[in-house]
Amino acid sequence: MRLTITAVISAMLMLCGSLFAHAAAVGFPKNLIYKGGPVLSGEVKAYFIFYGTWKDEHKDLLMDFIDNLGFTSWFNTLRLYTDSLGNSVTGPLKFTAAMNDLKSHGDSLQGNSSHVDIITKAVETGYLGNGIDHSGVYFILAGEDVDDVGLCTDWCAYNSYTDDFVDPSKNRCIPYLNNQVSPNGDPALDAIVGMIAHELPEMLTDPLGNGWQVSNEAPNSRYTEEIADWCMPPNATPDEWFPNVTKLENGASWNLQVGSAKWLIQSMWNPVTNQCTMAS
């Protein structure tokens, strides 16, 4: 059984520290390149696996976010990415199904092999449909009682198809702007939404690892970078990373309203204007 696009995102954020407060962009030569493969066009269904312990109210917020994100001006930037067949990331993005996994693979996951098996078995149960959705995206959302190989030392979240595309996120899990307070009352939960907003554009524009990528000429780089990596340090300044920030009365920062909730998410690279933006 061959999987489609998957993302693994962890809620173990309180152990990871916070994002560096004032990182500067660095000057390794990079170029945005299209490698000839498809983008995900048309309706994209999103499936959630809540692995470990989760509060119902937190699950509701995450499901509401993914179900409404496609209606935002932020998502419109993705529509500018096309493939060799002329298809673009049109959406709609639709939350479709979720299930709870009470740690079928234990408290400590062993990387991509565990993740693929978790999704495969979840689909086989029938709770996420009648088979693998090859135009869908599957998210494993790990609770705070779950650990994983490389978590918070190499990554906080990543997406993959048949190979790993690792987000090099050492000590980068909770944004520095909201590491004490957050718009929705839980810095870890708010950070998870930020990671979904980082991984999702890459899943849609580079689903098979041969779509839109960043040509990274940094010495000895072992990571494949994709479009969301372009608009975060060290490739962008903090102000480019999180633009248009508004402060709430409790001091929390936000820059995008999705449905009825306010969130802090990163900007996205606009391939037409060649800049990081929150709207197109």
Describe the structure.
The chain is of the alpha/beta class and 280 residues long. The protein has one domain. 19% of the residues lie in helices and 24% in strands. The protein is built from five helices and 16 strands. The chain has helices spanning 56-68, 73-76, 112-124, 187-205, 238-241, and strands at residues 5-10, 30-34, 44-51, 93-101, 108-109, 137-142, 147-148, 157-160, 164-166, 212-216, 246-247, 253-254, 256-258, 261-263, 268-270, 275-277. The chain has a six-stranded mixed β-sheet with strand order 4-3-6-1-8-9, sandwiched between helices. Strands 2-10 form a two-stranded antiparallel sheet. A two-stranded parallel sheet has the order 5-7. Strand 13 and strand 14 (261-263) form a beta hairpin. It is globular and about 45 Å long.
